[in-house]
Amino acid sequence: MYRLIWFQHIHKAAGSSIVNQAIANGEVFYPNHKNGNPHSPDGELIPLWDFNQNELKEFVDQCEEDGITFVATEWGAPMYDILEADSRVSLITCLRNPFSRLISNFNYDYYYGFTRSKSLGEYLTEELKINLDNFLVRVFSRKFKVHRHELDNSDVLKASTNLRRFNLVLVMERPGDLTKHLCEALGWAPHKVDTHGTFGNLRIFISLILKLRFSPAWNYSFKRKIGNTEIERSKFSKSSQLDMAFYNFLTNEDVRGNLHPLYQNFD
Predict the structure, then answer these.
(1) Which of 56, 161, 175, 248 is the most buried (most CB within 10 A)?
(2) What are the φ/ψ torsions at residue 92 (nearest 5 degrees)?
(3) Is the C-alpha dihedral spanning 35, 38, 42, 44 positive or negative?
(4) What are the φ and ψ backbone dihedral angles of 214, each rounded to 5 degrees?
(5) Is 226 exposed, middle or buried (0-12, 13-18, 19+ CB in 10 A)?
């Protein structure tokens, strides 16, 4: 029986670990892909989040015909209701504490040279491709590209509704989710895989040296994260209060059983 695992990749929330675990377990990826995200033969990212109902169904049809069993969407949010209604598709995702995700994102961009900001405060002022405020709500309400001030409580409700459509929702901070629960749900065997973390990449260390970024290179060698202040944390909490409330509510043990099972096995 054909199964297409559709992974909504939340950037800097263990996505590469899940993708590499899928590779290790023999899942079949799109012929041309980057970290599970389908690309055209000429290397262009395929914007699956812009596909309408018919286009999305045709894409799944083509995946079945080609024997593709794993697809990731990292840079946008597809029509979850259409995917949920397709019995061939199994939706999975992994959540992470919003502030922890931001810190990880900043350190990754800082050391890899994707940002010129030298502090989290500067980073928060940037208009990046990945929105920094209310990121989870943006993804699951499908307002991924909307300007930051346009979200409200109705978007939180929409995000919650869409998250209920998923077959498997993991939480990065919860022990066992990325090993035991992930593999049990998908019928995988656990493998030791590359997590694509910020630190430990010799190429990045050499790059910092060649760019004469000696201080960052020294800190990188000791795996030192760039610190943050209470002011910066407060600023983020204020700009992403919908996200913090959304995450805290979903991961609250008292409401988990009534609201949404954060992981469940496939039938």
Answers:
(1) 56
(2) -135, 155
(3) negative
(4) -70, -40
(5) middle
Cα Rg of the chain, angstroms: 19
Nearest to 65 by CA among 20, 28, 22, 24: 28
Taken in order of first residue, the domains within the chain and their CATH numbers are 4-259 (3.40.50.300)
pLDDT reported for residue 147: 62
Burial class (CB within 10 angstroms; exposed 0-12, middle 13-18, buried 19+) of 260: middle
3-class DSSP state of 103: helix
Query: Taking the CA of residue 91 as centre, how many other CA atoms within 13 Å lie in the half-sphere pointing to its CB?
Result: 21
- What's the confidence (pLDDT) of residue 239? 84
Two tokens, residue 117: 């900001």
Inter-CA distances, 220 with 28, 85, 206, Å: 35, 46, 10
Question: CA 88, CA 5: separation in Å to the nearest integer?
Answer: 9
Low-confidence spans in the chain with pLDDT less than 70: 127-132, 146-149, 253-267
Residue 28 has a pLDDT of 97
Number of helices and strands in the chain (H, E) = 13, 6
Any residues with CB less than 8 A from the CB of 123 and at least 6 apart, and which?
106, 109, 110, 115, 117, 132
- Angle, to 10 degrees, between the axis of helix 98-112 and the axis of helix 202-210? 50
